[in-house]
């Protein structure tokens, strides 16, 4: 599920970037550092939609870098237990199949014949969080879940 | 990863049995198997996959094994439950799987995002990301700026999962449901799934069943309105494809 959330991060900037475009440089650094990352608490940061506030910079002792606390709004994607998702099958093996919904991979333990690139509707029954990835397990064994369309019929 | 995960994939009721099996695999005498190996369960890799169980369940697994007439040695498995190895097999009994099958259907949406976040429906996200994508198309003349892979995947997902023409129309249809006890997460689920019948809604969002008497009517109306919006979108798509045929 997608969320719009305000997050805060301390950005460090080297003095060579100081000047009239300090703010722009800070924002591009933020975008480069944060977009595409994943945290356990918030999920995948899909896109930054705006910067709310940039606090006063503090010079770090010993290095000369300056730390700015930045508050920004972003769209995050995080799967939840109990959520229903429509995913595309990416890999099939003996144990079941892997499907992808956005940036998240979901494994479904299943013994129905299924093809790669099929669309399935599944329910997330468990989530696991790594440092940089969220991984889920799902099921298609309940009512109204299962294959939506096969790759042959998709066109 | 899949192998390791597959041990954790089994249903919650097998959680303890698995923990004890791992204990025995380590070669240590499993005298402490009556106490589950919480360390394994709380390992960050399996966090969320396997739930901790009270001891009562562990014992009931042994009981279930003795009740289900599988192979011989039921009594011995009960005695040896402490050893863990047999308990794993016993835990594989029918009771474990049916309990998990029942609980899967009843698993309710478990949202625990911080309070300052707003849920976005796929249709809203599709519109938002479309704007950003257009912005990026201008900025991408600068070779240093590159959209991350997760942006593209999420954008694709939101576009494909979007059954409706505009997010505004969907919001207008679904917002009134809040008065009837439907919370944000449930509204978002309904919008993302695009259900066709009321039974589908209750099957896929079991938490709504609790207040069914209150919300059934409004949800039915919302579904009819959503069906109109969906129809409008497919008409639009048909029209645009007809243009190319001419």
Automatic annotation (TrEMBL), chain A:
GO terms for cellular component: P-body; RNA polymerase II, core complex. Keywords: DNA-directed RNA polymerase, Nucleus, Transcription. Residues 79-134 form the S1 motif domain. The keyword Iron does not apply. It is found in: Nucleus. It comes from the Eukaryota. GO terms for molecular function: single-stranded DNA binding; single-stranded RNA binding; translation initiation factor binding. Residues 8-64 form the RNA polymerase Rpb7-like N-terminal domain. The keyword GTP-binding does not apply. One of its GO terms (biological process) is positive regulation of translational initiation. Belongs to the eukaryotic RPB7/RPC8 RNA polymerase subunit family. DNA-dependent RNA polymerase which catalyzes the transcription of DNA into RNA using the four ribonucleoside triphosphates as substrates. This is DNA-directed RNA polymerase subunit. It comes from Leersia perrieri.
From TrEMBL, chain B:
GO terms for biological process: DNA-templated transcription initiation. The keyword Transferase does not apply. Keywords: Nucleus. It comes from the Eukaryota. It is found in: Nucleus. The keyword Protein transport does not apply. Signal peptide: none annotated. Residues 1-103 are annotated as: Disordered. Pfam families: RNA_pol_Rpb4. One of its GO terms (cellular component) is nucleus. InterPro entries: HRDC-like_sf (IPR010997), RNA_pol_Rpb4/RPC9_core (IPR006590), Rpb4-like (IPR045222), Rpb4/RPC9 (IPR005574), Rpb4/RPC9_sf (IPR038324). Residues 7-24 have a biased composition (Low complexity). One of its GO terms (molecular function) is nucleotide binding. Residues 112-233 form the RNA polymerase Rpb4/RPC9 core domain. This is RNA polymerase Rpb4/RPC9 core domain-containing protein. Belongs to the eukaryotic RPB4 RNA polymerase subunit family.
């Amino acid at each position: 599920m997608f969320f719009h959330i305000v997050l805060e991060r301390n950005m460090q900037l080297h003095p060579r970037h100081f000047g009239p475009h300090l703010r722009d440089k800070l924002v591009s650094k933020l975008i480069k550092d944060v977009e595409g990352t994943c945290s356990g608490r918030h999920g995948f940061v899909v896109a930054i939609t705006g910067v709310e506030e940039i606090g006063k910079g503090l010079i770090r002792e010993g290095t000369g870098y300056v730390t700015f606390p930045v508050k920004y709004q972003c769209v995050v994607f995080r799967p939840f237990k109990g959520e229903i998702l429509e995913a595309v099958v990416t890999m099939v093996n003996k144990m079941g199949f892997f499907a992808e919904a956005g940036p998240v991979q979901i494994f479904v333990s299943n013994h129905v014949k299924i093809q790669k690139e099929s669309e399935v509707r599944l329910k997330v029954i468990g989530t696991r969080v790594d440092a940089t990835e969220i991984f889920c397990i799902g099921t298609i064994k309940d009512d109204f879940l299962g294959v939506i369309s096969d790759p042959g019929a998709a066109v | 990863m899949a192998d390791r995960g597959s041990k954790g994939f089994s249903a919650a009721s097998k959680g303890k049995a698995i923990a004890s099996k791992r204990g025995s695999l380590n070669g240590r005498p499993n005298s402490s198997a009556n106490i589950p190996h919480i360390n394994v369960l709380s390992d960050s890799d399996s966090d969320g996959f396997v739930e901790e169980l009270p001891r009562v369940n562990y014992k009931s697994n042994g009981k279930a094994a003795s009740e289900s007439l599988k192979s011989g040695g039921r009594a011995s498995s009960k005695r040896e439950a402490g050893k863990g190895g047999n308990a794993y097999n016993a835990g594989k009994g029918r009771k474990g799987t049916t309990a998990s099958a029942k609980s899967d259907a009843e698993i309710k949406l478990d949202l625990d995002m911080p309070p300052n976040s707003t849920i976005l429906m796929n249709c809203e996200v599709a519109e938002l990301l479309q704007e950003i994508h257009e912005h990026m198309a201008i900025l991408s003349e600068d070779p240093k700026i590159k959209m991350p892979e997760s942006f593209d995947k999420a954008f694709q997902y939101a576009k494909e999962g979007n059954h409706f023409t505009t997010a505004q129309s969907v919001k207008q249809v679904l917002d009134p449901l809040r008065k009837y006890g439907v919370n944000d997460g449930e509204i978002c689920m309904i919008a993302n799934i695009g259900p066709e019948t009321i039974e589908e809604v209750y099957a896929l969002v079991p938490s709504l069943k609790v207040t069914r008497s209150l919300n059934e009517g409004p949800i039915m109306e919302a579904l009819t309105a959503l069906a109109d919006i969906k129809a409008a979108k497919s008409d639009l798509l048909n029209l645009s494809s007809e243009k190319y045929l001419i």
